[in-house]
Amino acid sequence: MRAYRLCLLWTSVLIGTTVLLTGCLYNYDAAVGRLSPAEQAEFSIYRQVMTSAQARTYLAKASAAERTAYLSEMGLAQRFQRLDPQDRETVRSGAPRVGMSADALRFVWGEPVETAGDARRYSRWQYLGWSLGPSAHYHPWDRSNRVEVYLANNKVLGWVDVLPIGDHGGECAGQGC
C-alpha cells in the first residue's frame, strides 16, 4: 500500500511538472508573438546571449522602452554595440561568417556545448545541429549532428558539420562504418 501511494505521488509530480513546463513553453512563444516585428527583430539579436530567466524577464516587460532599458541594464546592448559594424550585420542576419569575432558568434549561436583551447589563440567550439540551423535544445544523450567551429585570434576560421557515425560511440576503428 505504501509503495502504491509513493508511486501515485511521483506520478502526480511528473504530470504536474509536465503541465507546468508545457504552459511555460506556450507562454514564451505567445509572449514573443505579441512583440511588434521590430521588437521581434531586436529580441532575435539578443536571445542567444540571454539566460532563460533573462529572456522571461525581458518578455514580461510592459513596453518596448522597458525592454530596451533592460538590455542596457544587463550590458547586452553595450556588448552588441562594441562589435564591429560588419559583425553587427552578421548577427542581424542570423548566419555566421568566416572572420566574425568569437563574441559575435555567441550572439548568433549562443554558448557552445563544448570547447577546447583558447579562442584568443586557437580553439574548437562545438554546437549541436546543422550549420544551417543549430539545435535549440541540448540533451547529454543526444547523438545528433554537430557543428565544429574553428577559431584563432578571436576570429572564426571556419566550421564543418559532423555527422554521427553509426551507433559506435563515434568510433569505427577502420571497420567500414
Care to give the gist of this entry?
This protein has 177 residues and is of the alpha+beta class. The chain has helices at residues 2-34, 37-46, 52-60, 64-74, 76-82, 85-93, 102-109, and strands at residues 114-118, 122-130, 133-134, 146-152, 155-162.
Describe what this molecule looks like in 3D.
With 177 residues, the protein is of the alpha+beta class. 49% of the residues lie in helices and 18% in strands. The chain contains seven helices and five strands. It has helices at residues 2-34, 37-46, 52-60, 64-74, 76-82, 85-93, 102-109, and strands at 114-118, 122-130, 133-134, 146-152, 155-162. Strands 1, 2, 3, 4 and 5 form a five-stranded antiparallel sheet that branches. Strand 4 and strand 5 (155-162) form a beta hairpin. Helix 6 packs parallel to helix 7. The longest helix is centred in the N-terminal third of the chain and has 33 residues, at 2-34. The protein starts with a helix and ends in a 15-residue tail after the last strand. The model is unreliable at 170-177 (pLDDT under 50).
